[in-house]
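In response to reviewer comment 3 from the previous cycle, which asked for concrete evidence that the modeling workflow produces usable outputs, we include below a single protein chain processed end to end. The sequence was submitted unchanged, and the resulting structure tokens are shown without manual editing.
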Amino acid sequence: MNNAGFAIGSSAANAPADAKASAGICPDRQTEMPLIPTYWHFVAVDAIEKNGGPSLIDRIASASWLIERAMKARWPRCIAAAKPYIDKAWKDAAMIETETLI
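The workflow returned the following structure tokens.
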């Protein structure tokens, strides 16, 4: 989901401000996503089924494309809303990596 530009929000009381801001628009870690990331495929399969199942193009395209299409249909505004938070996270990660190299 990260490669597609999605962020995982959280409506938990102790969640960071960035996660709380994206909780209503993106998948909510507290209510919509399984606790263990290994089981996130259940959410993808459910989104594909609710979207009408695989189309003809989906049968030819890669599985990642099918999952990305279903997630975009389920949370259509998530990518645009998550972009500033993802950019900030990448910038913070780059700063930490630079500091450890010095």
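The chain has one domain: 17-101. We consider this sufficient to address the reviewer's concern, and the full set will be provided in the supplementary archive.
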